[in-house]
């Protein structure tokens, strides 16, 4: 019996010693144990996502791919696979698995190696959130105590959810939701059994068992997981056999981008970093919803690219990329390897010329595809000599290409054609006239070619796009659309520039006294200068500042009247928006709202609105709040005919006096905005009576041929030596600006023969706003406005219409083609009738108006 007592004493002594050791270990590590209560509010590191206004994913930023999921969103088969592999007794133990610990201890004693399999899922959560991966006894002790505390703090489902969302599964994927997308491009509920088993096997070896980098090792791991599921009766023998017979199908899937709009996503990324800091912006799971319309953005991108291609082609072919071989051809695989070294850009693909016939060429693409380029895709390629000169049109394919050359090709939507990377630059931006929301933004031809955002960063000379603002200044004073301005050479030069500056018309033709409407529609230079002289230089500068231009960019000399200031396309669109919305300077904005990782709105835009509190107060029927941002999809017609705010769409809840609403400054009267808009319609539609021989074109007549609606208005712009070209215009629902030029400020856009259906026609000349930037605007607005109702012309209160004599701008009793109705601010309409002599063409200029013609 003595030996039994001794054994019993020894057993209790060891037990007490063990308890004491555990207690000592606990109190030893206690100061270093973190508070596990933080797991209740843990912030999973999820990337920054940028969306369009209609919820299309534009971009994703952040090192870690994570798609957090709730427990009830995880398929039961995936839960089974994870538990069968990692912790079969998870729902039975209290944080640590004694059986697993004993097994690990046995392995340690018998082999001297530490086992990884002793850690429960709860312990792995403890290690993943609070500890390092180093294999030390102290770390293991901390892990055990933390696991016990976690089990008291969270329930099993919460612990397993943390594990499934936190685990690193390779290829920057954290959590099973991200892994499903990265490896299979699927959501969790779409995964098959073999795919589930593959993901379940990754936590212990995310690199070694990665199905992309090591498919053989990954398959072995997957099949082991399947065998565990079979052993635990969570799948049948038939399911097991079918699954292990399934080949590896995993491949890398990037973020599922719905809309490629890199310039706006970069603006959003920069905004979030500036406001929240880089670490928080990239890891807190913010969702940024921009004001960009995905449909309009695609149209703008296509219009800009097609317009750039058109400019590039009419200036000629600059030659091949390189000569891959001359006499001895390379083998096919060698050619493909060479082609893969050249990155495609915006649908422009590298290709090798394999064979040439009389009027066609066969080329090989980097993907191994062989295509034939017919004459329709070759005949444009006159040789580039300079920006101002091109050779005669080619007659044979051999005039253009040689076998063995590496070239670029692209499919233009109709056929394959020879191509090249354009050197010219372009930018476009579109705004909502009512609140300034940026609907489209394209900062350049290709973001991969240049990340420079020309919409917001490039200051370029404005050219004749400035003229509507010059004339608006005079209309705000005492002129009218019928005021005669002398279209004659200026003999009193401006000497403030250091030299005598004598502006000329382009072309250098002068027509004598001409109405203001015609001067703006035909962009007559000397008339703009005389208009600014009448308004006064300082008054003009003050007015331009009201339109949103920076005073530092406005030269204090008469070159201002012809567009010498350098401004950004966004500033231009913002200024033209004033005419579109009735005189209000609305602030452009591109972020509608921001949500956190749990879809709580943490930031909401409060845009300036094109209406005033006084206007809103006139109609209580619209005194309600628009919480759902319906203003983004509908537009207001702010009509002062009865001083009410009316909504064109009866289903809309669009209002101006929303809670915390901000109202834009009305910088010109609604009447002035209307009159300038009417003149800018003449830029497109011209005037007069063509059947009577008195018709005349505006500078943007091409727009009327494509966009067959009369609610569009716009203005061309060209700078000296055609370095910058512009077209800016609008209708009541959308304002858009297009710019085309070279990033090299000194390079001219030059001259070219204009192309019709891919072949030179009889028209040639210098690049200009109407020819160079205009087609991009025309194409975009034609598509953007298609299917939308045309807005009728409704003059605001205070506008009257009277019949005038077109030569004198005075009243007339005639009704023939020499007369027309013109709009005036009430009280400014002419009071005198044209005399018979004046109506016959003998113009009399009285002393009061004589100063206009100096």
Q: In which range does the helix fraction lie?
A: 25-40%
Task: Kindly provide the radius of gyration, computed on alpha-carbon positions and rounded to a whole number of angstroms.
Answer: 36 Å
Shape: elongated
Q: Indicate the multimeric state.
A: single chain
Total strand segments? 34
Distance between the termini: 134 Å
Query: What is the count of DSSP helices, taking H or I runs of 4+ residues?
Result: 24
Indicate the structural class: alpha+beta
Strand fraction equals: 15-25%
**How would you sum up the major sheet?**
6 strands, antiparallel
Low-confidence stretches: 15-34, 618-654, 756-763, 841-854
Mean pLDDT over the full residue set: 84
How is this structure best summarized?
The chain is an alpha+beta fold and about 850 residues long.
Would you write up a description of this structure?
Residues 15-34, 618-654, 756-763 and 841-854 have low confidence and may be disordered. Helix content is 33%, strand content 18%. Helix 2 packs parallel to helix 8, helix 2 crosses helix 9 (215-231) and helix 4 crosses helix 5 (137-153). It starts with a helix and ends in a 15-residue tail after the last helix. The protein has 24 helices and 34 strands. By secondary structure, the chain is an alpha+beta fold.
How is this fold's topology laid out?
Blueprint lengths: L1 H28 L18 E4 L5 E5 L3 E2 L9 H11 L11 H14 L9 H10 L6 H17 L2 H11 L6 E2 L1 H9 L8 H8 L14 H17 L5 H8 L17 H15 L1 H6 L3 E4 L3 H21 L7 E2 L8 H8 L9 E8 L4 E5 L4 E4 L10 E3 L2 E2 L14 E7 L4 E4 L5 E7 L6 E5 L17 E2 L5 H9 L8 E4 L24 E4 H6 L3 H11 L1 H10 L19 E2 L1 H12 L3 E2 L5 E5 L5 E4 L3 E2 L3 H5 L18 E4 L4 E4 L14 E2 L1 E2 L3 H16 L15 H6 L6 E6 L5 E8 L2 E8 L9 E6 L2 E8 L2 H17 L13 E7 L13 E7 L10 H4 L15
Parallel strand pairs: 1-5, 3-4, 23-26
Antiparallel strand pairs: 1-2, 5-21, 6-12, 7-8, 7-12, 8-9, 10-11, 12-13, 14-15, 14-30, 16-19, 17-18, 20-27, 21-22, 24-25, 28-29, 29-30, 31-32, 33-34
């Amino acid at each position: 019996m003595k030996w039994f007592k001794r054994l019993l004493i020894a057993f209790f002594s060891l037990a007490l010693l063990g308890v004491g050791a555990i207690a000592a270990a606990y109190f030893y590590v206690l100061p270093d144990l973190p508070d596990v209560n933080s797991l209740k509010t843990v912030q999973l590191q999820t990337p920054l996502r940028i969306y369009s206004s209609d919820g299309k994913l534009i971009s994703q930023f952040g090192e870690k791919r994570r798609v957090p999921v709730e427990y009830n969103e995880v398929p039961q088969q995936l839960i089974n696979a994870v538990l069968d592999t990692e912790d079969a007794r998870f729902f039975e133990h209290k944080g640590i698995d004694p059986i697993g610990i004993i097994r690990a201890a046995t392995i340690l004693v018998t082999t001297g190696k530490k086992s990884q399999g002793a850690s429960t899922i709860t312990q792995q959560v403890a290690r993943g959130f609070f500890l390092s991966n180093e294999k030390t006894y102290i770390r293991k002790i901390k892990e055990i105590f933390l696991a016990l505390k976690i089990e008291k703090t969270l329930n099993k489902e919460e612990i397993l959810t943390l594990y499934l969302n936190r685990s690193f599964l390779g290829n920057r994927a954290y959590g099973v939701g991200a892994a499903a997308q990265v490896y299979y491009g699927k959501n969790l509920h779409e995964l098959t059994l073999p795919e589930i088993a593959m993901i379940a096997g990754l936590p212990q070896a995310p690199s070694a068992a990665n199905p992309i980098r090591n498919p053989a090792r990954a398959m072995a791991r997957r099949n082991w997981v399947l065998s565990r599921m079979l052993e635990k009766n969570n799948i049948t023998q038939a399911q097991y056999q079918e699954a292990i017979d399934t080949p590896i199908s995993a491949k890398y899937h990037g973020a599922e981008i719905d809309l490629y709009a890199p310039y706006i996503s970069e603006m959003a990324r920069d905004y979030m970093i500036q406001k929240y800091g880089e670490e928080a912006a990239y890891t807190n799971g913010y969702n940024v919803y921009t004001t960009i319309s995905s449909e309009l953005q695609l149209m703008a991108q296509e219009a800009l690219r097609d317009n750039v291609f058109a400019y590039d082609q009419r200036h000629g072919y600059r030659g091949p990329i390189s000569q891959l071989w001359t006499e001895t051809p390379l083998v096919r695989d060698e050619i493909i390897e060479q082609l893969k070294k050249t990155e495609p850009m915006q649908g422009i693909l590298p290709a090798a010329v394999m064979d040439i016939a009389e009027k066609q060429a066969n080329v090989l693409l980097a993907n191994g595809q062989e295509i034939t380029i017919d004459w329709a895709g070759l005949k444009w390629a006159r040789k580039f000599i300079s920006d101002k000169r091109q050779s005669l049109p080619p007659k044979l394919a051999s005039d253009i290409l040689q076998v063995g050359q590496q070239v670029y090709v692209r499919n233009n939507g109709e056929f394959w054609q020879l191509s090249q990377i354009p050197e010219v630059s372009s930018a476009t931006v579109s705004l909502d006239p009512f609140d300034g929301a940026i609907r489209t933004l394209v900062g350049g031809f290709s973001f991969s070619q240049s990340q420079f955002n020309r919409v917001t960063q490039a200051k370029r000379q404005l050219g004749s796009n400035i003229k509507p603002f010059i004339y608006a200044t005079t209309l705000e004073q005492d002129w009218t659309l019928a005021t005669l301005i002398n279209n004659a050479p200026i003999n009193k030069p401006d000497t403030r520039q250091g030299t005598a500056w004598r502006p000329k018309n382009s072309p250098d033709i002068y027509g004598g006294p001409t109405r203001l409407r015609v001067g703006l529609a035909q962009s007559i230079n000397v008339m703009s200068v005389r208009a600014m002289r009448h308004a006064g230089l300082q008054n003009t500068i003050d007015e331009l500042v009201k339109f949103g231009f920076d005073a530092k960019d406005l030269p204090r000399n008469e070159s201002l009247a012809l567009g010498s200031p350098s401004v950004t396309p966004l500033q231009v669109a913002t200024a033209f928006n004033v005419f579109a919305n009735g005189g209000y300077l609305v602030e452009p904005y591109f972020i509608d709202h921001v949500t956190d990782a749990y879809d709580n709105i943490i930031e909401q835009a409060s845009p300036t609105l094109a209406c005033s509190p006084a206007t809103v107060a006139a109609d209580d029927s619209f005194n309600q709040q628009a919480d759902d941002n319906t203003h983004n999809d509908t537009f207001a017609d702010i009509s002062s005919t009865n001083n009410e705010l009316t909504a064109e769409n009866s289903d809309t809840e669009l209002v101006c006096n929303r809670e915390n609403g901000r109202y834009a400054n009305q910088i010109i009267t609604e009447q002035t905005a209307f009159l300038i808009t009417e003149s800018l319609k003449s830029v497109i539609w011209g005037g007069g009576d063509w059947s009577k021989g008195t018709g005349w074109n505006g500078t943007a007549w091409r727009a009327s041929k494509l966009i067959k609606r009369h609610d569009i208005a716009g203005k061309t712009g060209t700078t000296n030596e055609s370095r910058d070209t512009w077209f800016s215009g609008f209708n009541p629902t959308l304002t858009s600006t297009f710019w085309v030029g070279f990033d090299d400020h000194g390079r001219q856009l030059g001259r070219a023969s204009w192309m019709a259906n891919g072949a030179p026609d009889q028209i040639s000349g210098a690049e200009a706003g109407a020819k160079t930037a205009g087609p991009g605007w025309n194409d975009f607005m034609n598509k953007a406005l298609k299917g939308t109702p045309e807005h009728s012309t409704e003059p605001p209160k205070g506008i009257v219409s009277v019949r005038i004599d077109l030569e004198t701008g005075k009243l007339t009793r005639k009704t023939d083609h020499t007369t027309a109705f013109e709009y005036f601010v009430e009280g400014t309409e002419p009071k005198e009738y044209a005399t018979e002599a004046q109506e016959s063409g003998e113009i009399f200029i009285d002393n009061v108006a004589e100063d206009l013609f100096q």
